[in-house]
Design brief:
The chain has 8 helices and 7 strands. The protein is of the alpha/beta class.
Length: 239
């Protein structure tokens, strides 16, 4: 038995934890374990976030589909949350271009069913475990317009980069008309109140140019399955 696991089980016995809490923690561990096993089967790619509620003919979906295709043609895996809307569009573009199209889906009571354009999929029970995998499997992050879920994913990854809890990797916000008002809020409120530094806003780039994303991914290149960026991450700021 793994020493860390044995110690953990000993702690459970000693602390007399609530059985429901033990069961819950085991479910957490299972989500993480299965996720790590899956993402170790492909090289880090480009993770694309955005609303599940946009229709196929929406302009943002059309742009996400185009991006997915361009990334695939340049040899980059496309990773999404596996659902409809922006996620399906990006997966579709990658799938139809013959690329690796990955969907890390979440079990929800509404709106979320894995889309038909994924070559690899995994179901998660917990949002936090899914977000870990969407982050860990990526070398470039792309955020299309979305709702609370997209904002949650954006701000969490932004915070992790700001506080050097993960490497600073290219982060693109697609849609100047959508993201610029949020950026202005950061300037006029957060930066003015000194709750963030001006340089924190350099972590992300707001653009309408999907070519910049492909260029960033090409610059990083194509690390092998065994060369995950996080393997040698020290936890110290890289900027």
């Amino acid at each position: 038995m793994n020493g860390a696991l044995s110690n953990w089980l000993d702690e459970i016995a000693k602390e007399k934890l609530n059985p429901d809490d033990v069961e819950r923690s085991l479910h957490y561990a299972q989500d993480l374990e299965q996720g790590l096993a899956k993402i170790r089967t492909y090289a880090q790619g480009v993770t694309i976030f955005g609303s599940a509620r946009f229709k196929e003919d929406d302009k943002w979906c059309k742009l996400a589909e185009k991006l997915g295709g361009e990334l695939a043609r340049n040899g980059h895996a496309v990773i999404t949350g596996g659902g409809p809307g922006i996620m399906q569009a990006a997966n579709k573009g990658s799938y139809e271009a013959g690329g690796r199209s990955i969907g890390l889906n979440i079990e929800l009571p509404h709106e979320q069913h894995v889309n038909p354009f994924v070559t690899d999929q995994l179901e998660f029970r917990y949002f936090f475990a899914r977000k870990v995998m969407l982050t860990f499997s990526s070398k470039v992050f792309v955020f299309f317009p979305g709702g609370f879920g997209t904002l949650d994913e954006f701000t969490e990854i932004l915070l992790l980069m700001q506080e050097a809890k993960m490497p600073r990797m290219p982060m693109f916000l697609i849609g100047k008309s959508f993201w610029s008002p949020l950026d202005k809020f950061f300037v006029n409120k957060l930066q003015k109140m000194k709750t963030i530094k001006a340089s924190d806003r350099n972590i992300y780039k707001i653009t309408d140019d999907i070519g910049a994303i492909v260029k960033a991914a090409n610059t990083i290149g194509h690390p092998s399955i065994h060369e995950n960026i996080y393997n040698n991450f020290s936890g110290k700021s890289t900027v």
